[in-house]
Design goal:
Keywords: Coiled coil, DNA-binding, Sigma factor, Transcription, Transcription regulation. One of its GO terms (biological process) is DNA-templated transcription initiation. This is FliA/WhiG family RNA polymerase sigma factor. GO terms for molecular function: DNA binding; DNA-directed RNA polymerase activity; sigma factor activity. With 263 residues, the chain is mainly alpha-helical. Among the domains are: 104 residues, Rna Polymerase Sigma Factor, Chain: A; 41 residues. Helices cover 74% and strands 2% of the residues. It has a two-stranded antiparallel sheet. A hairpin with a 6-residue loop joins β1 and β2. α1 crosses α2, α3 crosses α4 and α8 packs antiparallel against α10. The radius of gyration is 23 Å and the shape is elongated. The relative contact order is 0.10. The N terminus is likely disordered.
Length: 263
């Protein structure tokens, strides 16, 4: 039950939505936003890995609240989709788009890593094989410590980590108890988990191996490079490519849900 300041009476959630749907009253809308603001906080915390190094959590929450306001205004109560499910997808998408637009990855990180990739390509052509890390560093007249630092920085700049992708498909018990307590939401979450697993299985062999060694076996970048007999830089490239493919499949699935709800 929800206590409204305007009418000083208790009304249930359905009636609150019906009143807003009929009147578009701003104060009723604000009550709905306040009720569901916890979704923004949960999603902001789940995605903290993509902004915590450069961005401020308050900015992320504010962006999420703006998205929540838009969702409340556009939500169609005649549809069968639970509001929490619909809102969570839209809020997450809005935050990720916001982070992408900020381009928080320092230009120097991008520039330095591009120099390494260019050097690696040139050496591959001249040597007829993938160069070793020390060969790339020597070609660039770069200290190995600096070389490894650049590669490690680039390795951590993927917009979503695998843990966060997993988080999309596996809610904690707390989250389940707060807003995902109906069978239909559990079915959707299981389907999302299946999409992620299928996406991993569709990756190339080296991409699957890098993902497995890094996230399942908890190996370091250099250890993976030694096992695969490739450079650290190449491992970083494979890792980034794999995460981008997984992220695209997850986002495509979630966008499909939104489009179906509009019909």
């Amino acid at each position: 039950m929800i206590l409204t300041d305007n009418y000083n009476v208790e009304i249930d959630e359905v009636e609150l939505w019906e009143q807003y749907y009929a009147t578009r009253d701003i104060q009723i809308r604000n009550q709905i936003i306040e009720k569901y603001s916890y979704l923004v906080k949960i999603i902001a915390l789940k995605l903290r890995g993509i902004y915590q190094q450069y961005g401020d959590v308050d900015d992320i929450v504010n962006e999420g609240i703006i998205a929540l306001m838009d969702v409340v205004e556009k939500y169609d109560i005649t549809k069968n989709t639970k509001f929490e499910t619909y809102a969570s997808i839209r809020i997450k998408g809005s935050i990720i788009d916001y982070v992408r637009k900020q381009d928080w990855i320092p230009r120097k990180v991008k520039s330095d890593y591009k120099n390494i990739k260019d050097a690696e390509d040139k050496l591959t052509n001249s040597l007829g094989r993938t160069p070793k890390d020390d060969e790339v560093a020597k070609y660039l007249k770069m200290d190995m410590k600096d070389y490894n630092q650049i590669v490690n920085n680039a390795f951590g700049t993927s917009i979503l980590s695998f843990e966060e992708l997993i988080g999309e498909a596996n809610l904690t018990e707390t989250e389940m108890s707060i807003g995902y307590d109906l069978p239909e939401e559990e079915i959707e979450l299981k389907e999302l988990h299946k999409v992620l697993i299928d996406s991993v299985n569709k990756l190339g062999e080296k991409e699957k191996l890098v993902i497995s060694l890094y996230y399942k076996e908890d190996l370091k970048l250099k250890e993976i490079a030694d096992i695969l007999n490739i450079s650290n830089s190449r491992v970083s490239q494979i890792h980034t490519s794999a995460l981008q493919k997984l992220e695209k499949n997850i986002m495509d699935y979630q966008n499909d849900i939104i489009e179906k709800d509009k019909r």
